């Protein structure tokens, strides 16, 4: 009996001790009070590392660049080449020195030709000058005019062509210098011809004057001789 009482007493003591050790209950905070009610921040989700496997059987993740590098890229479509056929550039005109050499060769060749050959060259040069009115063609045609000289106006035509070259060609152009020299020669020859013509005209005038004087003397002599013979005949018949 005493043993049961002792056990009951021990159980009661343990119950009292256990109740004393329980924590004091906390009243719930007012949800409308900002000081007592706080919403807990959500815990950030941890992202798996690119170098760490996600599971025992997972493969390591690869970056986008590595993935793109491993994938085969489609080859670009081959574009057929476009062939553009450009027209050949026009041949540049010969340099002025080359034109000068050709012109001098032609002038030297003209000096060895006969009159019929010069006429053919004159016709060809006239046609060339009609197509291209260049200074070289002007000089060539002018020289042929001075060599052929089918009319008294040929020298004047040549001088006019040389004058046109002097007006159109640059001051330092060798063709202009050549035209100036030829123009001076033609002018000098034309002046010499004019002087010779004047001298010839003067000689003809002197000759005509001498002939007129001779005729006048013959008339006077005839008149004087005829008058003396008539007077002598008249005196003899009177005797």
Written overview of the protein:
This protein is mainly alpha-helical. The protein has a domain at 96-189. 64% of the residues lie in helices and 0% in strands. The chain is built from seven helices and no strands. The termini are far apart.
Summarize this structure briefly:
The protein is mainly alpha-helical and 239 residues long.
| Class per helix and strand makeup | mainly alpha
What's the overall average pLDDT, rounded?
73
Please count the helical segments.
Answer: 7
Query: Taking Cα atoms only, what radius of gyration do you get, to the nearest Å?
Result: 68 Å
- How far apart, in Å, are the first and last alpha carbons? 256 Å
- Portion in helices: 55-70%
Characterize the overall form.
rod-shaped
Q: In total, how many beta strands?
A: 0
* Weakly predicted, low-confidence segments: 28-32, 48-54, 61-66, 228-239
Strand content: under 5%
User: What summary fits the major beta sheet?
Assistant: none
Order of H and E elements? HHHHHHH
Quaternary state reads single chain
Task: Record the SSE blueprint.
Layout lengths: L1 H19 L43 H7 L25 H15 L4 H17 L3 H14 L5 H15 L5 H65 L1
Helix pairs in contact: 3-5, 4-5, 5-6, 5-7, 6-7
Write out key terms for the chains shown.
single chain, 239 residues, mainly alpha, 7 helices, 64% helix, rod-shaped, disordered C terminus
């Amino acid at each position: 009996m005493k043993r049961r009482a002792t056990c009951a007493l021990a159980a009661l003591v343990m119950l009292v001790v256990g109740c004393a050790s329980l924590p004091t209950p906390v009243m719930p905070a007012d949800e409308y009070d900002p000081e007592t009610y706080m919403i807990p921040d959500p815990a950030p989700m941890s992202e798996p590392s690119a170098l760490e496997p996600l599971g025992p059987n997972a493969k390591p993740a690869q970056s986008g660049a590595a993935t793109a590098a491993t994938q085969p890229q489609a080859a670009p479509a081959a574009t057929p080449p476009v062939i553009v056929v450009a027209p050949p550039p026009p041949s540049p005109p010969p340099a002025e020195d080359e034109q000068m050499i050709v012109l001098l060769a032609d002038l030297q060749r003209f000096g060895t030709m006969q009159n019929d050959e010069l006429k053919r060259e004159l016709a060809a040069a006239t046609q060339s000058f009609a197509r291209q009115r260049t200074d070289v063609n002007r000089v060539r045609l002018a020289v042929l005019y001075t060599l052929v000289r089918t009319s008294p106006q040929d020298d004047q035509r040549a001088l006019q062509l040389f004058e046109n070259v002097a007006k159109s060609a640059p001051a330092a152009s060798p063709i202009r210098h050549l035209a100036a020299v030829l123009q001076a020669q033609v002018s000098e020859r034309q002046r010499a011809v004019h002087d010779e013509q004047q001298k010839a005209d003067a000689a003809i005038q002197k000759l005509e004057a001498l002939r007129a004087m001779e005729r006048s003397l013959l008339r006077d002599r005839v008149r004087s001789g005829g008058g003396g013979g008539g007077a002598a005949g008249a005196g003899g018949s009177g005797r």
